[in-house]
Amino acid sequence: MGKVIIGNNVQFAPNVSLYTAGHPIHPDSRNSGYEYGIGITIGDNVWLGGNVVVNPGVHIGNNVVIGSGSVVIKDIPDNVIAIGNPCKVIREITEEDCKYYYKNYEFDVDDYKE
């Protein structure tokens, strides 16, 4: 099976699936039981929403949010939000994202440090 590399501060919501196994397409080869693995790499500070599927060979960059139910079949670059089936980048994560959701208050990470 392929190796899965998971960075620091990665969050997995329920039912996330990481698949590294591959199988031949031709039935004779597939019926032989031949199987191979292709690794997956997940960068630092990644959040994978519920029911996300990550397919073999995918690299997910740093500081990424993958929306619920997405099927990731291609590499995802750093600092983006990506969603869908197939998963596609919808926008970059910017300094504007330091504001609370639906409010105009700045988020200060120091307020939450012990």
From TrEMBL:
<dbReference type="InterPro" id="IPR018357">
    <property type="entry name" value="Hexapep_transf_CS"/>
</dbReference>
<dbReference type="InterPro" id="IPR001451">
    <property type="entry name" value="Hexapep"/>
</dbReference>
<dbReference type="GO" id="GO:0008870">
    <property type="term" value="F:galactoside O-acetyltransferase activity"/>
</dbReference>
<keyword id="KW-0677">Repeat</keyword>
<keyword id="KW-0808">Transferase</keyword>
<keyword id="KW-0012">Acyltransferase</keyword>
<protein>
    <recommendedName>
        <fullName>Acetyltransferase</fullName>
        <ecNumber>2.3.1.-</ecNumber>
    </recommendedName>
</protein>
<dbReference type="InterPro" id="IPR011004">
    <property type="entry name" value="Trimer_LpxA-like_sf"/>
</dbReference>
<dbReference type="InterPro" id="IPR039369">
    <property type="entry name" value="LacA-like"/>
</dbReference>
<comment type="similarity">
    <text>Belongs to the transferase hexapeptide repeat family.</text>
</comment>
<dbReference type="Pfam" id="PF00132">
    <property type="entry name" value="Hexapep"/>
</dbReference>
